Amino acid sequence: MKTSSQQDRNEQMYGLQDIDAYVENIAETISYQANGVSMIIAGLMSDAQEELQNGDNEGARKTLNIAKNILFRAADGDLTFSRGKR
Q1: Fewer beta carbons under 10 A from the terminal one: N or C of the chain?
Q2: pTM for the whole thing?
Q3: What is the DSSP string of 5-59?
């Protein structure tokens, strides 16, 4: 279980109380199982672009932080970045 200070930090950085649970849920999605995290990261980046276009700089910052967290986990080998070739 996350401590209150961890939850507060996660909320400030990601807009989520538990980034680990969020990432665990990603690993169970059809998109991840079919493609790896590359398409999930691309989708989050598109979401951030839309947030910026709509003037939601704080939302965009948090969305990009989520994308970076997932990217770093893939770089560390905890998640698969891409499955197969195009």
Answers
A1: C
A2: 0.90
A3: HHHHHHHHHHS-S-HHHHHHHHTTSHHHHHH-HHHHHHHHHHHHHHHHHTT-HHH
